[in-house]
Fold Mechanosensitive ion channel.
Amino acid sequence: MEFIRNQLDGYGMSEAAVGYLSNLTMAVFIALVCILANFLTKKIVLKTIIHIINNNRYTWDNIILEKKVFHKLSHLVPAIIIYSSAPIFPSYEILIKKLAIIYMIIVTTMVFSALLNAVEAIYRTFEVSKIRPIKGYIQVAKILLYIIATILVISSLIGQNPLIILSGFGALSAVLMLVFKDSILGLVAGVQLSSNDMVRVGDWIEMPKYDANGDVIDITLNTVMVMNFDKTITMIPSYALISDSFKNWRGMQASGGRRIKRSINIDTSSISFCTEEMIEELQKIHYLTDYVTTRLNEINIYNMEHEINTESKVNGRQLTNIGIFREYIHQYLRNHPKIHKDMTLIVRQLAPGDNGLPLEIYAFSNDTNWAVYESVQADIFDHIFAVAPTFGLRAFQNPTGHDIVHLKESKEYSREYSSYN
């Protein structure tokens, strides 16, 4: 500064003009130094760091590079130069230092925020991240970081100790609790969800209250993001998963089996005892040959031991078409390649009602994929509906318009035939 002043004094300028021009010249010089320092930092230092990172065997430092942690850190160099140059301008020294400190606080906050993002991204590369997500904790850390940065900026502007400002926050605690209510509830809920392993990223959950039915794609401090099967996104408050009930299908997916629970309603008027001709035909069915033979032997022995008159079907024990049909479905499912053999497999009768006798299939497919599961279920019932008439059974169905028209046509034909005769 003295050198610049001496040079300007040689031109015979006034003291005020010399002071003004010397300050301006020095400010331009410092700005040029800052630009040069920033250029060297980014073109030499930063490129060297990038080269080292790209050529080592680690991957986590690449993530730090992607989050631009070092790029943001390079902005501190000009701020340090400006702060160090503040004594050159005695009249503006305090103001320059304050502005430089505020800028450094903001840059440092951005660096730590980017570093936290990098930590989360690195953590996501591990399988444990699906079980124990930390995004909520990262967001809490960012909130604390921003609060601390704000306090430091304010303390720098007013020239007070940051602890004094913090002591004044006690009176604002109620307001802060109200402002950060959702964040506090979300943090507590996130801890409970994580510690109890209630939900993970990738889980299929169902929560009718929030019209959510799909896969969890993200868990944040305040919300759990669910992508529904219709590709819409539902945002559920984290604390709602603690206070309300929801269904998690993870157990089904982990077990390797998906439940099939569906009934076919049998017309009760088609249920009857098996005739000898029917038994002969049913014995030809591969899945029933051994069963029918064994049951006939048991029934004959029982009826002979109890001297039962078999001329009437009501006496003694007899085979029924519904009983053989139920056994056939059971054997069919046991031999089906898409049915899980190590899980529950039941073919049972439910209480008969207005819609006939429900014959329920309770089994598990060995593929939990939705499309495959629906295909397996449809194939099974296609076969059951098609094979039921072989056993002399009819599936129950309420009369349709076609049935009414057909009945009307039959009556008209009968009336014409009677009048013709």
Summary: The chain has a mean pLDDT of 82. The chain has three domains: 2-193, 196-255, 258-272+320-401.
